[in-house]
From TrEMBL:
Main location: membrane
UniProt GO BP: lipid A biosynthetic process; lipopolysaccharide biosynthetic process
Keyword Transmembrane in annotation: yes
Subcellular location: Cell membrane
Residues covered by the EamA domain: 4-102
Keywords for the protein's UniProt record, in alphabetical order: Cell inner membrane, Cell membrane, Lipid A biosynthesis, Lipid biosynthesis, Lipid metabolism, Lipopolysaccharide biosynthesis, Membrane, Plasmid, Transmembrane, Transmembrane helix, Transport
Chain segments annotated as transmembrane: 32-53, 60-80, 86-103
InterPro entries from the UniProt entry: EamA_dom, EmrE-like, Small_drug/metabolite_transptr
Pfam families (alphabetical): EamA (PF00892)
Membrane topology term: Multi-pass membrane protein
The name this protein goes by in its record: 4-amino-4-deoxy-L-arabinose-phosphoundecaprenol flippase subunit ArnE
Length: 106
């Protein structure tokens, strides 16, 4: 359950970051609704994060948020066709390995 909450916080944070990218792409006037959605998602994520911190040590929970780097990179690749170097993908895999090690304690 704790791992699912952390994953949900990461997904909400990722979605918020993607909304911010879309708002930036459209410009402030046209992207204001994307920006508002981003703030809403970040707020919900923060409330869930507080629930996580009640039951998971911050030394374990916080590094797990590194999943955001992976989720945002994959989503940006799929949505905006952003390209990544081999070095970037190796770094992303290293993050996944680290998160897997941290998650084994939950």
């Amino acid at each position: 359950m704790n791992l699912l909450l952390i994953l949900l916080v990461s997904v909400l944070s990722c979605a918020a970051q993607l909304c911010q990218k879309q708002a930036a792409h459209l410009g402030i006037k046209k992207g204001i609704s994307w920006l508002a959605l981003s703030i809403l998602l970040l707020g919900i994520g923060m409330l869930l994060w507080l629930a996580v911190l009640r039951v998971v040590p911050v030394s374990v929970a916080y590094p797990m948020l590194s999943l955001n780097f992976v989720l945002v990179a994959i989503a940006a690749r799929l949505i905006w066709r952003e390209t990544y170097s081999v070095q970037q993908w190796i770094g992303t895999l290293a993050i996944v390995a680290g998160v897997a090690l941290m998650g084994s304690h939950l």
